[in-house]
Amino acid sequence: MKNLRRVVVTGMGAITPIGNSVDEFWSSIKEQKIGFAPITYFDASEYKAKLAAEVKGFDPKKYVSAREARRLSLFSQYAIAASKEALEDSGLDLEKEDTARIGVAVGSGVGSLQVVEKECEKLSKKGPNRVSPLMVPMMISNMAAGNVAIQFGLRGKCVNVVTACATGTNCIGDAFRSIQVGEADVMVAGGTEAAITPISVAGFAALTALSSSENPERCSIPFDKERDGFVMGEGAGIVVLEEYEHAKARGAKILAEVVGYGSTGDAFHITSPAEDGEGAARAMEFAMNEAEIKPEEVDYINAHGTSTHANDAFETLAIKKAFGESAKDVNISSTKSMIGHALGAAGGIEFIACVKSVMEDYIHPTVGLQVPDEECDLNYTLEPVTDRTVNYAMSNSLGFGGHNATLLIKKYEG
To answer: Residue 183 above 70 pLDDT?
Structure first.
């Protein structure tokens, strides 16, 4: 492990329900702004879940031509927009770089359900010959990565890791590994999702995974005893990861360092995390072991924290298992308390929140948490923390199918 190359973060981009840039997103986080409101994309009056965290004011023509926008699904548009911001933030001059050494690892949990719904309706009403020839390339989930690579001419490794709600975190982890072992010098990595559609909301509601609350302030309330499910979000979180010496050589602004990654499987249930938290605990332990740090050195955990009963209770057990006595001392919070659950994009957006936390020594609270739950008895950060140096931040993601992923971020010290 000692021979692995160091990996740093040099750029970030975000499209979220509370801001369509990293600066807007982070300002809203500090204002404890929530992105929840009645669904506007379709008539949800007959649906069990009536609230969502929709992206507001997004104009794809700010990022691509009108013609390109028509050929790109919304999840690909979000990915390109966030990647553009991240690349600009990194200061990379792509004309001077070997683009065969710059790769892409951008995932989407479900791809374009909008296209599936639209083309299924055409098939039903007008027959198979009216289905769009662009249906498949607009629908499949790997097209976010493919379109980002095409848009910016990035010819290195190009992958789409799909692990449901752990997608964004696994993509960043895979990119981290690729740079460590020399497959790439730079990776554009993260997750994107645009799944606030009729079939998606109906399907997740049928699973009893979504909150039925109609109160925006009491719908996504991770770790609260009154939680009743997650709120569907959307957007993209994309970062530029770079080999340390490559970044130094070009005088890059280094935001943070990635020092640990853990990925495990529960082999337990198709939707529920393992009840004892064992799989998620191992992912956290792997990340800490790789970074060669002890649990007491972790200052902040950005929890998966979905606001479902099972996730929050079992993630609490996982943290206790991984951290032992230190579990009670670490600050924990859930960004989903403000932006809902963006599925495949969640890990990317939450990674950005962790990077900002180590940059600014600021830990955001779990907004809306009011009613203590005896099953969730750790420090879920009820107020902003500004008096703690955040040297290490951990980001957890847990996906349907038993996928667990953890990333560990360190304050950059040169």
So the answer is: yes
Cβ atoms of 332 and 367 within 8 Å: the answer is no
User: Would you call 158 a catalytic residue per the annotation?
Assistant: no
Residue 273's pLDDT band (cuts 50, 70, 90): confident
One-letter identity of residue 87: L
| CATH class, 259-409 region | alpha beta
Could you tell me the residue ranges of all domains in the chain? 9-249, 259-409
Q: Is 341 an active-site residue?
A: yes
* Full-model pTM: 0.97
Q: What is the CATH number of domain 9-249?
A: 3.40.47.10
Per-residue pLDDT band for 271 (boundaries 50, 70, 90) equals confident
3-state helix, strand, coil in the chain (%, to 5): 40, 20, 40
Which entry of 171, 246, 341, 376 is annotated as an active-site residue?
A: 341
Cβ atoms within 10 Å, residue 248: 14
Told to judge if 403 belongs to the known catalytic residues of this protein, a careful annotator would answer no
The average pLDDT across 162-170 equals 98
Beta bridge partners of 393: 300, 409
Q: Do domains 9-249 and 259-409 have the same CATH topology?
A: yes
For residues 315 and 296, what is the distance between their CA atoms, to the nearest angstrom?
A: 18
